[in-house]
Amino acid sequence: MAKINAAQVKGMLISVADRVIASKEMLCDADRNIGDGDHGIGMAKGFEAARRELMARDFSDVYTVFSTVGRTMIREMGGASGIIFGLLFFAGAKNQQPKGEINTQEFAEVFEKALNEIQLKGQAKPGDKTIVDGLVPMVEVMKSCSAADVNFKTLLSEAVAAAEIGKENSKNYVARYGKAKTLGDRSIGFPDPGCVSLVVIADTMNKWAQENM
Amino acid sequence: MVKKVINDPKNVVQETIEGYLLMHPGEFHLIENYTAIVKNQLEPNRVGLVFGGGSGHEPIFLEYIGKGYPDAIAMGNIFAAPSPDIVLAATKAADRGKGVLYVYGNYAGDNLNFDMGAELAELEGIRTETVRVWDDVASAPPERMFDRRGIAGDFFVIKIAGAACEDGLDLDEVKRVTTKARDNTRTMGVAMSPGTIPGENTPAFTLPDDEIEIGMGLHGEPGVRRGKMKPADELVDEMLSLIIADLPFQAGDEVCVLIDGFGSTTRMEQFIAMRRTLQNLEKLGIKVHKAEAGNYATCQEMAGFSITLMKLDDELKKYYDWHVWSSVYKN
Hints:
The complex is a heterodimer. By secondary structure, chain A is mainly alpha-helical. Chain A has one domain (3-212): DhaL domain (Serine Threonine Protein Phosphatase 5, Tetratricopeptide repeat, Alpha Horseshoe). Chain A contains nine helices and two strands, in the order βαααααβαααα. Chain A has a two-stranded antiparallel sheet. The model of chain A has no long low-confidence stretch (mean pLDDT 95). Chain B contains eight helices and 14 strands. In chain B, helix 2 crosses helix 3 and helix 6 crosses helix 7 (267-283). The longest helix of chain B has 17 residues, at 267-283. The termini of chain B are far apart. The model of chain B has no long low-confidence stretch (mean pLDDT 96). Classes of the chains: A mainly alpha, B alpha/beta. The A-B interface holds A 28-29, 32, 35-38, 41-42, 45, 74-84, 121-122, 177-184, 186 and B 54, 76-86, 107-109, 112-113, 115-116, 138-140, 147, 149, 197, 200, 202-205, 217, 219-223.
């Protein structure tokens, strides 16, 4: 099975941080359509702090790279997105035996556990117009890709395509969660801002893999 | 760019807190490394009271601290709930071994972050309880009360909670009284123009020049109806009828009344809304114990106001009249 090591995950997540920070205004705009317009501010703040933590040292354990990013975002961001995007990186990495490298199956499991924890804590279901709508198809395809023993380039290009479909589908849903929920039918036509961020994250992980793996 | 009295937008929360603390030397201090403040003097053997939420709504949450008011305030970024670490820092600072009550508005972000803060506090051996404020009648029907937002009703609920803590009640009792205050509080707002996050170029929402939204939330969340601007009396009539029907409030009830301005609604307008509100309550046979008007929960330069009623019983009345001091309310 293809493997990715701690230094590579660090490089990948630093490029994610750079891209999210650069996408701040786009993410605020996405949130302004159906929320309060601050999503990009929180995401940029969280990834700026996570980037500092990543740059500050070398990592020998892949899971510590993920958990450092997630825990820093939980601590620095606040808001619903602080917990949800923090858990995206933290939930699947906490309490894991340290590993210098992980295979595609273990990589997919990080995001599968994140999905489970996000649903448990947030109580959002598929179709509620949340990150769950992008994460469910993304995790699904990551699991099937790792079962088919593909490399990381294929796994991540499939993952971003699935997240993108989830994001597009979220346009059709009536928001049932967060500040957008009172919009009712008025939320139809706009993608969930959390899904928009998820696609930015997945797309950057994929681009990094295509160029560096 | 909206003109605002700020420096670097990144520093607005920190600088807001610093300014407030410099105004009140010797009374409150910053919990180091966190956007949280705590009273310098904490009476021993009392339940700790932590209140908090996103920044940008001042005076709520920052100024709701003092005698008979919360012990510590956990502040998040603009319009974003405080992180679990900030909540934990405020919890540890407020705890005197009797446990800590969290009071905050019912939003997904606040719920997630305070719940995780409570988990972290439990690991440190601090018992916490929570009362989420959900007074906004416009945000969900009564059968989904737990989906309602917390808005200006915080003003009443936190006042009751603070007085109950100072009276020396234990954590379960403070929670009971605070829950009762929450369950007897109803608010309805109307928005006329949006506020803007400091440093952003675009308002948080848009409303055509001649339109208003009845029931709009403090972050521009949609309410019950969008329509043309109307005279104050007609607005008050519509808003009050929705509030009255919801609890319902009945002839013979005794209430406290709050007219809250959202930021740029003038005191003149607040009094005009108050006039009609009190006239209508008298017609309905509802007795007013106390009435307050002011900017108590805002959203930057948002224009609009809300009406809040809290139905009193003897216990709530006793705690409402408690001798308190904060920079938002003195009694």
